[in-house]
Amino acid sequence: MDKKEIPEELNFQKSEQMNLTMIPGKFARAMRTNIIWQFIRFVIINIKMLIVVSKSH
Amino acid sequence: MARVLVLGGGVSGHTAATFAAKWLGTDHEVVVVTPNSNWNWIPSNIWVGVGQMTKDEVVFELDPVYKKAGITYKQAKAVSLNPEGSTQSDKPFVTIEYTGQGRTGETEEVTYDYVINATGPKLNFAATEGLGDANGLGEHTVSVCTAEHAVHANEELEKCIEKMRNGERQKFLVGTGHGMCTCQGAAFEYIFNIEHELKKAGVREMADMKWISNESFLGDFGMGGLHMKVGGYVVSSKLFSESLFAERNVDWVIGAHVNKVESGKVSYELLDGSTGEESFDFAMLIPPFAGVGMKAYAKDGSDITDTVFAPNGFMKVDANYNAGSYENWKASDWPSTYQNPTYKNMFACGIAFAPPHIISKPMSSPNGTPINPTPPRTGMPSGIIGKAVAHSICDLILKGEGTDLHRASMAEMGAACVASAGKGVFTGTAAAMTVYPVVPDFEKYPGTGRDTEYTFGEIGLAGHWIKHILHFMFIHKAKLKPGWTLIPE
């Protein structure tokens, strides 16, 4: 029988409590360090933070 | 001429002192008493602790900065407070003991018109057997609470990496060293930065990593956790945090009160009353915080420490300290002016003010051991509170006693927090989060206690860039370089 091993899913079996949470897949992980996407997120996060900062002063 | 005396030169005290000096000009005097000769941007100590920054990159000398600002700087620690003066004079004063400037050990009475207590915490390593003693950090664990500690932590980390390269498995234990700790965020950053560095060094497979914390659930962070909008859902920080740990194969023990640290082993009690032990080759355990232990005396010399300070050593301010049980807690219990209720010319900011109660749900083991995080009062709220207190005092001096005080309640302000999960211009990540407000207000926001329009979190390279930029921005601001007032707290 062919074995279908997905590296990012292996940690679910490392402990009972790890088995009960969510682990990001390959795409979600790749996007975390994708320069173009992260530049867009950089702008958005900064705007969100500035709004919170302005509401707090 | 009025004198504003600021005790402490950390984030809150430095912010208060520098703004007070700017607003008061040369007609009045601002005096800072702090035992340290350097200012430390503490959030970057994490990177010193993994060898990604040097100590010199996270500290700078205070003396030239205060000279430039026209602030009188005394390198000393505050020992006692006489808010009514003495039998010889009605002028209130603080007794200080020098720790530098060639006067080490000398004492002096510094009079004031207004005093700001921003002494920060005492790192109470002695609260846990084996974690340390009255002199500080013990021999079994490391710390990233100060730049010096972080340098030592990195030296120990490098030894472990070398052992792993030589084929010896190592176990890393990171978290909180007592049931009443705060600052879980710093430990959270440190364990993920270690994991990131171990991967870079090619030895991650040789490491067993474990988190141990007094939180009743992962992602509590001393704020009772938070809910944020992700992918159309509103999710708990528990799920967010557990996912980060599981993804990195970092196991966790929560609801733990570490009660003993020995060489290579910690003992702990859990919320269910059971006890356990955890071995380690490398451990970084945050100590609990306490007030710095200042005493207070009345005019006749009688001890009034209990009037001025709460039992934990933090200064009483305009909070509701009689809120009672958890069911009765309200956002309005939290202070907004930080003025001492007994002595109106005394204020406290940053970690030095006594919170009315914790933010997280109070928990204790069946044996009666309290195991819950204490409220965080660092970072952005600390700076905002310091500035608000300085503003109030400047108005009192310049406009007169009847003026309204400035308000900065943690139940009405938000906070932006960036928690590093690894450093690198293209490979680094950090969890960028905001909460609004810091202290949940279930009357205003009945669902989650917070406004989910302004409470969010995500992890990625963008967060790392923000954290790294903030490092330079806040050091620029603290050095009072051009445009420093434009950088928000």
Record the SSE blueprint.
The complex is a heterodimer of chains A (57) and B (489).
Chain A: H1 16-19, H2 26-32, H3 35-56
Chain B: E1 3-7, H1 11-24, E2 29-34, E3 38-40, H2 45-48, H3 55-58, E4 59-61, H4 62-69, E5 72-82, E6 93-98, E7 107-111, E8 114-117, E9 122-123, E10 132-133, E11 136-137, H5 147-165, E12 170-176, H6 184-200, E13 207-212, E14 227-230, E15 233-236, H7 237-247, E16 251-253, E17 256-262, E18 265-270, E19 275-279, E20 282-286, E21 289-290, E22 295-296, H8 305-308, E23 346-348, H9 379-399, E24 415-420, E25 430-435, E26 456-460, H10 461-478
Helix pairs in contact in B: 1-9
Beta-strand fraction estimate of chain B: 15-25%
> What is the CATH C-level name of the domain at 3-122 and 290-399 in chain B?
Alpha Beta
Largest sheet of chain B: 8 strands, mixed
Overall 3D form of chain A: elongated
Q: In terms of quaternary structure, what is this?
A: heterodimer
Q: Care to describe what's here?
A:
- The complex is a heterodimer of chains A (57) and B (489).
- Chain A has three helices and no strands.
- Chain A has 57 residues and is an all-alpha fold.
- Chain A has one domain (7-56).
- Chain A is elongated, with a radius of gyration of 18 Å.
- The N and C termini of chain A lie far apart (63 Å).
- By secondary structure, chain B is of the alpha/beta class.
- Chain B has a domain at 3-122 and 290-399: FAD/NAD(P)-binding domain, CATH 3.50.50.
- In chain B, the strands form eight sheets. In chain B, strands 1, 2, 5, 6, 7, 8, 22 and 23 form an eight-stranded mixed sheet that branches.
- In chain B, helix 1 runs parallel beside helix 9 (379-399).
- Chain B starts with a strand and ends in an 11-residue tail after the last helix.
- The model of chain B has no long low-confidence stretch (mean pLDDT 96).
- The chains are: A mainly alpha (57), B alpha/beta (489).
